[in-house]
Write a structure and sequence with these properties.
Structural class: alpha+beta
Radius of gyration: 22 Å
Strand order of the largest sheet: 5-4-8-7-6-9
Shape: elongated
Protein name: Transposase zinc-ribbon domain-containing protein
Number of strands: 9
Largest sheet: 6 strands, mixed
Strand content: 15-25%
Number of helices: 8
Bound molecules: zinc ion
Distance between the termini: 27 Å
Mean pLDDT: 87
Organism: Tepiditoga spiralis
Helix content: 25-40%
Length: 250
C-alpha cells in the first residue's frame, strides 16, 4: 500500500482508495431488508426496490461521523501524518478547524490507547527508548527508580527530561507537568550527541515540533513523539492512521 493520496484527483479516486484500505465498504444489499434490488435516487443515495427505504452510500462508514468529502478527508489524514499544524490544514484545505481537530483527536486517542497502551495519563510520563533492528521502540513505563539515575546523565528541554542509559534503555524520556526535583538537581544542558544517529534524528524531530508549537498538553506531546518515530516510514504511519478509523464507534 504505497502513499498515493497526493495523486488522487477527485472523490471517485478517493473512494476507491478508501475501499482498498478497508475504510469504505461497498454495499451490495439493502441494509434494512437485505434485498439486492436497489437503485440510485440521487447523488450518494440509494432506494430499495423491495422495502422502499432509502440510505446513503456512506451509511456505516466514517463519513457518517465526519461530514466531509472523501478526498478532503484523505488530504487531512495526509497533512496530519506530515505533522502539519491544525490551523494550517484547516486553512489550506478550507475545512473547519473543529473538523481537523476532531479527526486529529480520533487518531491521537487511537494511538495512545491501542498502539502505546496508555489508559490514563499520569502527571509524569516515562518512556523508555531503544533502537533495535533499525527500529526505534518505545515502552511506556508506569514509574521509574530515581536512585538509578546518574548525575551527568540528565538533560532538560522545557518540561521534557532526557535521561541517558537508564536500566536497559538507551534513552528515557520524561514528560512532566511540574518540575521533578530529583531530576532537576541532576540536570544540565541537553546533550544528545552521544545518542545513536537514528535516535538523534527522532529526538530532533519531535523536540523541534514541541518547541515551535509550544505544545503543552501531555497527550499531544506523547502523540507528537509517536509521530516522529515514522519520519522515514510514512507508509507504516498511514497504516496506523487508517487503522484508527477501521473500528470506529458511532
Ligand atoms: Zn430493503
Amino acid at each position: 500500500m504505497g502513499l498515493l493520496i497526493k495523486h488522487l484527483k477527485n472523490d471517485e479516486d478517493a473512494e476507491l482508495f478508501l475501499k482498498n484500505v478497508g475504510l469504505l465498504k461497498t454495499k451490495e444489499k439493502c441494509p434494512y431488508c437485505g434485498s439486492t434490488e436497489y437503485y440510485v435516487i440521487r447523488r450518494n443515495h440509494y432506494k430499495c426496490k423491495s422495502c422502499r427505504r432509502e440510505w446513503s452510500k456512506y451509511k456505516g462508514s466514517i463519513f457518517e461521523n465526519f461530514r466531509i468529502k472523501p478526498l478532503k478527508f484523505l488530504k487531512i489524514l495526509e497533512a496530519l501524518s506530515e505533522g502539519t499544524v491544525l490551523k494550517k490544514i484547516s486553512k489550506d484545505l478550507n475545512v473547519s478547524y473543529n473538523t481537523v481537530l476532531k479527526v486529529r483527536n480520533l487518531i491521537r486517542e487511537h494511538v495512545l490507547k491501542n498502539i502505546l497502551n496508555v489508559d490514563e495519563l499520569e502527571e509524569n510520563i516515562f518512556i523508555g527508548v531503544n533502537h533495535v533492528n533499525h527500529k526505534i521502540k518505545l515502552d511506556y513505563l508506569k514509574t521509574i527508580d530515581f536512585s538509578l539515575i546518574k548525575d551527568n546523565k540528565v538533560g532538560k528541554l522545557g518540561r521534557i527530561y532526557f535521561i541517558h542509559d537508564y536500566k536497559n534503555y538507551e534513552l528515557l524520556i520524561v514528560i512532566s507537568e511540574n518540575t521533578i526535583p530529583e531530576l532537576d538537581e541532576k540536570s544540565r544542558e541537553l546533550i544528545l550527541s552521544k545518542l545513536k544517529k537514528e535516535l538523534r534524528v527522532f529526538v530532533d524531530d519531535f523536540t523541534n515540533k514541541i518547541s515551535s508549537r509550544k505544545l503543552v498538553n501531555n497527550k499531544t506531546i506523547l502523540y507528537s513523539i509517536f509521530l516522529s518515530l515514522y519520519i522515514n516510514d510514512k507508509n507504516t504511519l498511514h497504516e496506523i492512521i487508517f487503522s484508527a478509523f477501521q473500528n470506529i464507534k458511532k
